[in-house]
Design a protein that fits this description.
There is one protein chain. By secondary structure, the chain is an alpha/beta fold. The chain folds into two domains: 354 residues, Glycosidases (TIM Barrel); 82 residues, Sandwich (Immunoglobulin-like), CATH 2.60.40.1180. It is built from 14 helices and 15 strands. The strands form three sheets. A seven-stranded parallel beta sheet has the order 5-4-3-2-1-7-6. It starts with 5 loop residues before the first helix and ends in an 8-residue tail after the last strand. The mean pLDDT is 95.
Length: 459
């Protein structure tokens, strides 16, 4: 393949569909879904900042089961020994997984994601354990039949697209524990764990081209860096085939003296994990997180470990107001069942979006993301060309609501989404006063539509 023109790649712009979509579903499902175990009770972000050695030993991510299993004295190692015995190895989960996935119904997943209001799906096709969820023409050279017995990638892609959702794929670019048996125990081993052999470079590259060609990937969601090669060749090939495609920001490579490939600087969007930005970002971003504290299903988590619908919806409104999308993860059980606690959250989000979706989809950030009422209720703003949307993150207790520092046009109409009648309003100098309907329904957040959009210099 000819040398990629990475200057042209860098000119690629984020397509409108991704700006408009706002909500995607992430799926972590694999061999780790058989034991479905990880330590609970840790704050992921804080534990990584505080002590990486303790973090990896007590990793709250169930999909990291194999790495945790390889760390001497880890809770996962003890759980595995007690549950399965000393002679039971990770690969022994393969026949169990392949038997259980016969029960999986991809159509039901697609229906659920559609009801949740998602506009795109990102499936983990290969996580760090190296197990493949599709029948690749490039099988694992280290392990025979190290793949799912069903074409999970193909079957799910077909059903997702039937619902009008876009399909993207996650791939663990540099970490593959079927090629490297040394565990990640701290910061140093984390940096050194990536596979850099010529055999693996060809293997990973072939997989990305296969996912693009065979399954028409619209999102390339790489994780934890990429192998030492010219990744711009993949990017150029992808954009040429799918100009509306997008590439995430996790392709950075470790270079050593003598390497002759260009360092990856290009990406379409940022991907903070379990964190959100506190201001409007010029760069498009997408936060990704589980409904609980793990991506892969963790049987040790209970309902208290999961986000409730109310807090998730408020977080989602906040993310969108700051130019972000939410990639919300589901962690199915080994047989493909999505746990009821996760289903409940997804369906409640979908019901809220049925009423308030106009304040979310197809919107852009306004001149400011945040506001507040004189009663201390937090406010978030989004806009279209025609209207400004003002979302309250709590239910107002009084019959009148006064939003600080919001001036709208004299001829504006105000409507509460979900209520047919226009809202009475008045301008109190720099504040906007709204009359709240007597029959205000219960909701985690309320969206007011103000038409026309106020002049951007008016505040």
């Amino acid at each position: 393949m000819r040398l990629a023109n990475y200057k042209s790649v860098k000119k690629h712009k984020v397509p409108d569909w991704f700006h408009n979509a706002k909500l995607g579903i992430f799926i972590h499902w694999g061999l780790y879904s058989v034991p479905a175990f990880a330590v609970t009770g840790l704050d992921l972000v804080e534990s990584m900042k505080r002590d990486l050695e303790e973090h990896f030993k007590n990793n709250p991510y169930a999909e990291w089961y194999l790495n945790s299993l390889r760390i001497e004295g880890s809770p996962t190692q003890q759980y595995h020994k007690d549950k399965y015995g000393e002679d039971f190895v990770y690969d022994d989960f393969i026949p169990i997984f392949n038997e259980e996935i016969k029960k999986w119904n991809p159509k039901k997943w697609a229906e659920l994601f559609n009801k949740a209001g998602a506009k795109y799906v990102v499936l983990v096709t290969k996580h760090h354990d190296g197990f493949l969820l599709w029948p690749s023409k490039y099988p694992n050279p280290k392990k025979k039949n190290y793949k799912a017995s069903r074409d999970i990638v193909g079957e799910l892609s077909k059903e997702v697209r039937k619902k009008g959702l876009k399909m993207g794929f996650y791939y663990s670019g540099t970490l593959d524990w079927s090629f490297n048996s040394e565990p990640i125990k701290d910061g140093k081993t984390f940096v050194e764990n990536g596979v850099k052999t010529a055999e693996y470079i060809e293997y990973a590259n072939n997989h990305w081209y296969e996912l693009i060609d065979m399954y028409n990937a619209i999102i390339l969601w790489n994780d934890i860096g990429y192998v030492p090669t010219n990744a711009y060749e993949i990017f150029e090939y992808f954009y040429t085939k799918f100009p509306e495609g997008i590439i995430n920001d996790r392709w950075k490579q470790i270079r050593k003296k003598g390497d002759n490939f260009p360092r990856v600087h290009h990406n379409d969007y940022l991907t903070p994990e379990y964190e959100v930005f506190n201001k409007i970002m010029k760069k498009k971003w997408e936060t990704n997180r589980g409904i609980g504290n793990s991506y892969g299903y963790n049987r040790m988590e209970n309902e208290e470990d999961y986000l409730d619908s109310e807090n998730l919806i408020r977080m989602f409104v906040d993310i969108v107001s700051k130019n972000g999308n939410l990639l919300l993860n589901v962690g199915p059980m080994v047989d493909g069942t999505i746990p009821e606690v996760q289903r409940k959250v997804l369906l409640n989000l979908g019901k809220w979006l049925e009423i308030n979706g106009e304040a979310i989809y197809d919107t852009r950030p306004w001149v400011k993301a945040e506001g507040i009422t004189i009663d201390g209720i937090e406010v978030r703003y989004t806009k279209t060309q025609r209207s400004l949307f003002v979302s309250l993150l709590e239910k107002p207790e009084e019959k009148e609501l006064e939003i600080k520092s919001l001036v709208i046009n004299e001829n504006s109409s105000v409507q509460l989404l979900g209520n047919k009648n226009e809202i009475e309003w008045s301008q109190m100098e720099e504040n906007l006063k709204l009359k709240i309907p007597d029959d205000l329904f219960n909701s985690p957040a309320y969206s007011f539509k103000i038409t026309p959009t106020p002049d951007e210099g008016i505040n």
